[in-house]
Amino acid sequence: MTSRRFRAPARRHGFLLAVPLLAGALLATATTSIAAPVAPARPRQVTDRGGALLPHRDAATTGYLGVTFGMDTGTLAGPPYNNQGNAIYNVPLYKSTTADLSGFWDDYVEELVSAGVDFVAVDVRGYVPGSAQPNGGGDPRILTGLVDAINRRGVSGQLKIAAFDDTPASLTDKKNQVKHHTGGYSPPFDIGDTTGAGEGGHQYFWDNNLRTFYAAVPDSMRFKVDGRPLVYEWSISDFAFTGQGNGNAAKMLSYVRSHAQSEFGVDPYFVVDNSWLSEDPSVSAQIGGADGWFAVPGNGRSMTSFNGATYGVAVPGFHFAAGSTNMNIDPDHGQTLSANLAATAGAGAKLTLVEGFTDWQENAALTRTAEGSYDQRHTDYPGQMINIMRRYSRTPFPAALRVEAETADSYSDTTSGNQYGAYRDGGIDIQTTSDAGGGWNVGAIAGGEWLQWQDLPLQGTVNLQARVASTNATGRMRFVIDGQPGPTVTVPNTGDWQTYQTIDAGTFSFAAGTYHTVRIEFLTGNFNLNYWTARRS
Questions:
Q1: Half-sphere exposure of 113 (CA within 13 A, CB side)
Q2: Is the pTM of this model over 0.90?
Q3: pLDDT tens across 480-526, in order?
Q4: Angstrom distance (rounded) from CA 231 to CA 472
Q5: 122: domain range?
């Protein structure tokens, strides 16, 4: 039995809904009171013989990797996190709030890029005409915010957008909201009713859902397979549908394809849940691929062959226990996700879809998790699932790695609490930055503090740079990788706490295919750190 079958209607709870690198010399801000400093000699090179060998995708293995993604009201609003009494372990690190939807999108674009995914399949669930957005969850009208965030970060050539149509929610639940003012899955959606005179209507599939997706996401930002924009379709099983056979499901797909072509000039590449093929075999002429989703209990993955290609689905873990329902897939300290990706993306699937980037509701989230023990979060450290995803991306060892200061997996801070109250809970002081690209920076840095990240992919000769700001020239910092210290570098006076410069922080040499623990030690304070980069020469 599949994981979604027991989901309450989308209107009642959330489900998945699921900057260019700045480089430069050490130049002072042009003011009358600050003299331009003399550029220091390049810091020395350090050879690091440590690091770990971890499983990752082979460079010769092809295929694209994507994730489901939810923008339901529960995820947008942030804590407290609750889903029908189910214990929530995968609490997000980022403190979301509906007062800052731009921040919501900025954070998750950064996380998606850090995970190395090719596409994000946003969970679209349609909308009720005349309603405000977001419409409970999965409202495609809100996707303009995602588009804007991708453009702000300058990654439109790297991260693309696909659609994941949660069909029981977009069709049955929305039809019942409009027609019966109740929502839910009863009465079921009649796929054979094309006009909406009865309990169906193609308008729920196209006009109030996928058409809006295409209107919100420009063609240049849509993820395409064989030149066609990718759309996943979930189950049309009997618990939410009738009239699936006799060519009716195929006609519904054909309706969308013809309208997408006439209105937007595109032909959707549908990858459907296997229920479409079992209910209506004639669907095969309308689709590009098929998938088997995943069963609970089970290993949390599937590989499905269709027309000479394979389509993978994977999940990092799963836990939903409420009432008489008790479904679980053990995340096993990240080993479940690693094994599932090795068997899908790592085994050459044409497409691999991972559930689900924001799915805290079912403890299947891939996002950075809040601080806490494994028993509390089902992760060993905040960035663990993102790191595993990146290992099975098409670029497990990126030539240029950018790491945001506020995302540290662990840290030492000399003051209690987050002085600025931004981004995350805990003791690290984080504030909104006005540096190019937006986001957040770590501020109020004091001597003796440090930030640390685990399992970062670094190989070959790598130059490290840090994006810093200060009103003095007394700050000193250094990278320490696998316990090996790099050179101590001085933070220049940049002229203002939010006027940033990129400084050289040394060069390290690493063995091929190795993963590392990276610490930044602040030997003295009085400066801000936005992010750091590692660029392989």
A1: 25
A2: yes
A3: 999 999 999 999 999 999 999 999 999 999 999 999 999 999 999 99
A4: 53
A5: 64-391
Question: Are 130 and 235 in a shared domain?
Answer: yes
Residue with tokens 């997000």: 92
Express each pLDDT in 11-28 by its tens digit: 322 333 332 332 333 223
pLDDT at 5: 35
Contact 147, 161 (CB under 8 A): yes
- Provide the number of structural domains found in the chain: 2
Mean pLDDT for all residues in the chain: 92
CA 141 to chain centre: 19
- Annotate 28-66 with DSSP letters as a single string: ----TT-PPPPPPPPPPEEE----B------TT---EEE
Q: Is 28 exposed, middle or buried (0-12, 13-18, 19+ CB in 10 A)?
A: middle
Q: What is the pLDDT of residues 278-305, one digit of tens each?
A: 999 999 999 999 999 999 999 999 999 9
Cβ density class 78-87: b for 16+ within 10 Å, e for less = beebebeebe
Neighbouring residues of 41: CB distance < 8 A, sequence distance ≥ 6: none
Secondary structure (H, E, C), 63-94: CEEEEEECCCHHHHHCCCCCECCECCCCCECC
Of the residues 359, 374, 391, which one is the last residue of a structural domain?
391
Examine the domain organization and report whether 406 and 444 are in the same domain: yes
Pairing of strands 309-314, 301-306: antiparallel
Instruction: Give residues with Cβ within 8 angstroms of 293, minimum separation 6.
Output: 2, 3, 4, 234, 235, 273, 274, 302, 313
Residue where a domain stops, chosen among 339, 372, 391? 391
Contact 367, 492 (CB under 8 A): no
Structure tokens at 78: 């942030």
In the prediction, which pLDDT does 34 show?
Answer: 34
Q: Which two tokens stand for residue 371?
A: 């601080």
